[in-house]
Amino acid sequence: xxxxxxxxxxxxxxxxxxxxxxxxxxxxxxxxxxxxxxxxxxxxxxxxxxxxxxxxxxxxxxxxxxxxxxxxxxxxxxxxxxxxxxxxxxxxxxxxxxxxxxxxxxxxxxxxxxxxxxxxxxxxxxxxxxxxxxxxxxxxxxxxxxxxxxxxxxxxxxxxxxxxxxxxxxxxxxxxxxxxxxxxxxxxxxxxxxxxxxxxxxxxxxxxxxxxxxxxxxxxxxxxxxxxxxxxxxxxxxxxxxxxxxxxxxxxxxxxxxxxxxxxxxxxxxxxxxxxxxxxxxxxxxxxxxxxxxxxxxxxxxxxxxxxxxxxxxxxxxxxxxxxxxxxxxxxxxxxxxxxxxxxxxxxxxxxxxxxxxxxxxxxxxxxxxxxxxxxxxxxxxxxxxxxxxxxxxxxxxxxxxxxxxxxxxxxxxxxxxxxxxxxxxxxxxxxxxxxxxxxxxxxxxxxxxxxxxxxxxxxxxxxxxxxxxxxxxxxxxxxxxxxxxxxxxxxxxxxxxxxxxxxxxxxxxxxxxxxxxxxxxxxxxxxxxxxxxxxxxxxxxxxxxxxxxxxxxxxxxxxxxxxxxxxxxxxxxxxxxxxxxxxxxxxxxxxxxxxxxxxxxxxxxxxxxxxxxxxxxxxxxxxxxxxxxxxxxxxxxxxxxxxxxxxxxxxxxxxxxxxxxxxxxxxxxxxxxxxxxxxxxxxxxxxxxxxxxxxxxxxxxxxxxxxxxxxxxxxxxxxxxxxxxxxxxxxxxxxxxxxxxxxxxxxxxxxxxxxxxxxxxxxxxxxxxxxxxxxxxxxxxxxxxxxxxxxxxxxxxxxxxxxxxxxxxxxxxxxxxxxxxxxxxxxxxxxxxxxxxxxxxxxxxxxxxxxxxxxxxxxxxxxxxxxxxxxxxxxxxxxxxxxxxxxxxxxxxxxxxxxxxxxxxxxxxxxxxxxxxxxxxxxxxxxxxxxxxxxxxxxxxxxxxxxxxxxxxxxxxxxxxxxxxxxxxxxxxxxxxxxxxxxxxxx
Length: 988
Fold this sequence. Notes:
Elements: H1 19-46, H2 57-63, H3 69-75, H4 97-107, H5 109-114, H6 117-136, H7 145-167, H8 172-187, H9 194-206, H10 208-225, H11 234-237, H12 241-246, H13 253-256, E1 261-266, E2 269-272, E3 284-286, E4 289-291, E5 295-299, H14 306-318, E6 332-337, H15 346-354, H16 356-361, H17 369-374, E7 378-383, H18 390-402, E8 409-415, H19 420-429, E9 434-441, H20 444-458, H21 464-479, H22 492-504, H23 508-517, H24 521-542, H25 549-570, H26 578-590, H27 595-602, E10 604-607, E11 617-620, H28 624-640, H29 645-649, H30 657-669, H31 673-686, H32 694-703, H33 708-718, E12 723-728, H34 734-742, E13 751-756, H35 768-778, E14 788-794, H36 795-798, H37 809-813, E15 819-828, E16 846-851, H38 854-867, E17 873-878, E18 898-902, H39 911-921, E19 927-935, H40 939-948, E20 953-961, H41 967-975, H42 977-980, E21 983-986
Parallel strand pairs: 5-8, 5-9, 6-7, 7-8, 12-13, 13-14, 14-15, 15-16, 16-17, 17-18, 18-19, 19-20, 20-21
Antiparallel strand pairs: 1-2, 1-9, 3-4, 10-11
Organism: Petrolisthes manimaculis
Pfam family, one: NACHT
Domain NACHT: 294-417
């Protein structure tokens, strides 16, 4: 304990004594133990069956709660099991914080249920500060003592007050004593009994929770340090003597990681999430409040950067960085790499793959690991659900089931979009609160930044001028011919592979040909493997060995067959099984090549650390995309040679979309696609690809090199025949892909709907405006005699929410001359007199537009004079300050259909202006529906409106007001309906 600061006595301190650590230990561990012991004692004494706390705890657990010895051993460890027989109310009964926190909800459930939220939170916070002490003992961690002790003081007070209220006990003396102790320790510069402190510290270090934290964190951090290298194609570079010499093949995550474009839907819009805020984003809405979700479900295309993001999170946690908020508070971060899980249960996974060395050191404690982790702050990074085997999915389900109760348990899971629904169902089944997050890859700045970082690392031994020149040439290529790769360039994996192809092909002439031949994903991988094969031959010549290209191609096809066999057996694993490895080794022997030379060139190669004697190498595909490419190459070879057994054996191709796309690419490369097109479309049928999956069909066509025969089949037999709906939302890319198809293939549809939900401004959807603008060049056969009837719905342009001030004019203009507008939702900006936007839209039936100026209202009036015969419904939102325009200047909006006028933000002082405005706009035909939301209208003003708009508003008045409208007031308004013939609808 600390002494009075004025004391002149001080024990001689060891040279390396850490007084900060002493203070933290005294206030958190010792005083925390005192507080938690006292509240447990008094809670126990308050139970009638404990007879004022005199019944031993073991007897109470056995008699009252019917616990068995095994249940007790699951809660009590070897160090504290003696408490079961210790007199609870005695001074020798001292309970550590972790044990007390476990007992409260389990043993004293009724009392715990009565505790306030504030009290429960403080109990959890004390437990986590106890765990944080274990972090603090690590030398890098610094402690702000004043801040920490101030927090502690509030927590202890909350605990005493909350428990005291629940059991009707006065803890004021205990609370005062605790405050005095904390104050004394904080102010003290002298230590009364160093030996006692060190004895207590050594006892604490023996506690299982502390040992698990110290040893477990160290083991995980050591393991994660080996995952820093994120080179996307080590399979291409292993063994290259130049690369080994320069060490350029090692790209460390901290050197090349580039923030990704990540978005999630929040408050009705699609919002970007900064990597720093990933774990603290409050986008989950529950009971009209936004909170931090327990789960983040990240989805994105293959190669969009999901795995790199996970590696970056691991790096930041391992190094105690500050790049991601709240990450340093996590006691443990567990990487569940779906492709690498070998266990069948969560317990086995944690024991065998995550913490084997730690648990070996703690084996005498016979700890139950999962219950201990439940008392800690834990983050599970589940990477690649789409690569999960049946056993791996059981592990994942176990995580969802066990770690779904507390806010300090977090899960981040990544998957491809086609598995999004399956993961969502699993999360919901286990009552997991989560949000869906879309990973898009890079934006334009990300492409440039990533390129600069990779060139700097890859060419670090070269002169700076050379590096800058190569980087400049590559960026020029991307902005020129490289644009043929389109959206693929925004995927980090594609961009990284393209950079590798650029950097590591030393033959300038070959390099130019390779780069120019890259037009899609298949050709990119084809050229990478071509470069790799050249390097293998070069390396073998250097070693005075010889293998011809035919032999290498044969082995590569065999590896592709292995990939296909593995995918169709369990749908996933990228780690090559011993059985499949043996087959590859036998094939290499049959072809008289060394297995290590070939396999290390194309696969990821690791030495098995668990083998004691003979060195055993394990092989795996680097990622699922590489596996899918090689499998497709094998299948293409079979198809070309009319050996269709493997292709036809699979009854369902659901989930093999990428294999089909690569297969199309391989057949296009070998000019076999025309001959085999029927077979390919049969596989598409087996994959259950829908005609409205425009994104798939566009990728299919790109990999087919826009083959004419394939384009006609897609246009005439696969896509919807008469009507397309291109809808943008955060879960798919159909809109842009559909526009690409519309501008590429000869479709004969009659109508199209283009809709962008409220989460996105259509101008911010990459290439959307350009594609629509360019359609006039492709749809030359479409004109006023043969138009494409078009609906445009841009909800963010239409809605008043303060987020978008853009107008839809430019998009409407793109329809000329190929499209006839039939329905419009959006915003109209000012137009030149005589060139009004809607003047010739003679098929327009429904108009819902936001109007911001008097001029736009007049523009609409002019257009309606010409097209009024077809318009059936007009809804206008006046997005202008009430009173800013003289009502007499508003023109009438006359046509034969229903008029809906929406004017938000009306106040009592605007009621006369409102009446005059509605009368001007609806002059001659009346207003069917007047909507006044977000208003500040009193009851008297609503009555005024009803009286003065009789026979003007024909059907309904909708009112949303901040004023409190009582039931009696609403009843009185109802009674006026007989006279006014206006129905009143109250919002909120």
